[in-house]
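Protein in question passed on here:
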Amino acid sequence: MVKSPCAFRLYRFWNRLGPSGVNWITDIIQLESLSEFGVFFILFMVGLEFSPDRIRDVLWVSLLGSSSLTVCMVLLFSFIGSMLDQSPVECAFVGACLSLSSTPLVTKLLQHPTQSIDIEHQSTSVATTTTLTSTTDEFASILMGILVGQDILLGFIIAILPSLGQFENNDEHSSQLMFLLIKIMKVLFAFIGLTLIFSLLKRVCLPLLARKMSKTDEFTLLLSISLTFTMLITTDALGVSMELGCFVSGVLLSMQPNNIRDHITRVVEPLRDIFSVLFFFAIGLHVFPVFVIRELGMLMILTIMLVALKFGISAVSLRFIAPTVSVANQLLMAAGLAHVSEFSFVLGSRARHLGLISREVYLVVLSTTFLSFVFSPLIWNSTMTLARKRLRWNDK
C-alpha cells in the first residue's frame, strides 16, 4: 500500500535478524565495514550521472538549498534548547544531524516505478506530455545536488565534531573557540585543494583513462574502483568526507564519451546493488525495536513534527532559491528531503562517545531516523499524487 522501495524492505527485514531482533546475526563488525562500500558505490554512480555542466547549472541552488536547511534547523533547535535550558552546543548538533537527508534512499525513490508521471496537456492545436520527475530532469539534478551538498556538510560536521566535544566539556571556551575556527579554516582550504586535484586529474588522467577503458569489462571495473578509492583516500587525508571523494571520482568519469560512460555504468551497477543490500542491512542493525515500541507514542509525535518541519523549511527555501522550478517539483523535492540521513547513526555515535549528547538523546535520534525512513515512501507517493492532481486541475 505504501509502495516502499526494495531498499527499505531490506532495511526492515535485516532489522529483525540482527541483535535487536531474533539475534541470528551477531558478528556485525565485518558486515558493517563491508556495508560502507554500498555508500561509496552509490555516490560514485550518482556522480557518474552528473557532468561538470550539470553541476554548474545547479551549483548555487544546491549549495544554498543544503546550507539553508541546515542553518534553519540549527537555529531553530538552538532556540528551542535555550527555551528549555539545554546545552546550546548539544541542541545545535542535534539540529545539524537531523537536517541531513539520505542520498541512497532518495536515489532508490527516484528509481522507483512510481517516480515518473505523465500528464497530457491538451491545447487547441498541440498535445504535449509533461513528465513530473525523471532522473535526468532538472528536478532530479537539483535534488541530487542538494543531497551532495549535504554530504559536503557532513564532512564538515565530522571534521569539527571533536572540537565541539572539547568545547562542550571544557570551561576554557575562548581557547576552544579559537581552535574550532582554525579547524573550520582548515576544512575550507581542504576544499580548495580538492578543486585543484580535480583539475589536475581532469587534464592528466582523463585522456589515459579514455584509452584504457575501452578494453575488457574487468579492466574497466578495476580502473573505476582504483580511481574511486584514490579519491576516497585523498578526501579523507584532506579532512573531508570520504563519500565526497567517491562522488568526485564519478564526476571525473562522467566526462568520458557516452559509450565509455555507459560501459562503466554496466559493469559497476551489479557491484553497487550487492553492497547496497549490505548497506541497508547495517542500518537495520542499529535500531532498537524494544525502545521504539515502548516510546512509540512520543517518537511518532516527534517524527511527524520533524518530517513536517523539514518539509516546510525545504518547500519555503526552494520557493526562493529555485523560482523557475514548478511548484509541483518544488513540493516533490521537499518530500525527498523530509527524512533523516542514515549518517545520523554515525554522527550520533561519535557525539555520544565525545560526551556531546546523552544516551537518551542518541536513542531518540536513532529512533526518529528509523521512523522517518518509514514515513519517507508514504510522503513521496502522497506528494506525487497531489502533484498529479494539481497539474490535472491546472490543465482544466
